[in-house]
Model the fold of this input.
Amino acid sequence: MVKTFWEAKDFDVFQVEGLENRMNALIENVRPKFEKLGMQYSHYFSSTLGDEFFPHVAKHARRSVNPPKDSWVAFAPYKRGYKSLPHFQIGLWGSHLFIIVAVIYEAPDKVAIAEQLLKKKSLFNKLPDDFIVSGDHMKPDAIPLKQAKKGELKDLLTRLHNVKKAEFLVGRHISKESAITFSEDEFLHFAEETFNELLPIYKAMVNKK
Done:
């Protein structure tokens, strides 16, 4: 039997009661996988995009009461952080796995990013039908891209331009049930394929040719 990369227990950590207990479960089960993915894809982005990328595994260090509802590894061309820049992520909620490129509320250049994405909105037509978009990285829900192209995509990008706290995420969600069937090779291939599809969106975000 082929060993899968993700296991049910990786997703089940978000059912563990209490901050300390959940953090211990995350550190034991999930963080080593994020660190492995961090090494793998920081090299991939560095070689593909020509800038040195660094992995940032979520530490949830500021939490003192509420346990995290999701966790992730992010990738950005800045060693000290990623939140102020467009960045890639692989992460988990209890219900699904996500592979995305994101601009979140800390990014100072959202007006310019939104203008670039609105100008190059046709890039979204080239993404596979199973992609999703979202306007809030704190919520697990997302809108199927196929549906969003009828109007919500433009609304999200316009909001990113006009609203200081607005966010924009695009990528793939994979249900827990599907994610736990991937072997390591299958998952790494799937993640890289997803990132390859997202590279033109990222390049538009950062105005890179």
Notes: The two ends are 44 Å apart (CA to CA).
